[in-house]
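Homework help board

Subject: predicted structure for assignment chain

Our instructor gave us this sequence and asked us to write out the predicted structure in C-alpha cell form, then describe one feature. I got the C-alpha cells but I'm not sure how to describe them. Can anyone check?
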Amino acid sequence: MSGAGDAFDKLKKAVDDNADKVEGLVDKAADAAKKATGGAHDDKIDKGADAATDYLRKQAEKNKEQ
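My C-alpha cell output:
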C-alpha cells in the first residue's frame, strides 16, 4: 500500500507545483464527468470541481509568494 501512498504524494506535489496549469484540467474533467453521467449528478460534479479549483488557486498563490 505504501506504493500507492508514494504515488499519491508525488502526484500531489506535481499538482501543487503546477497549480495554475492544472486548473484547466479540472474543468475538462468535470465536463467529461457530466457527459458520462448524462447530467444526473451535475450539482455534485460542480461542487467537487469548485472545491478543487479553489484549492488550486490557493496553491498557485502560495507558489507565487515563494
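Reply (TA_rk): Your C-alpha cells look well-formed. For the description, you could write something like this. The chain has a mean pLDDT of 85. That's the kind of observation they're looking for.
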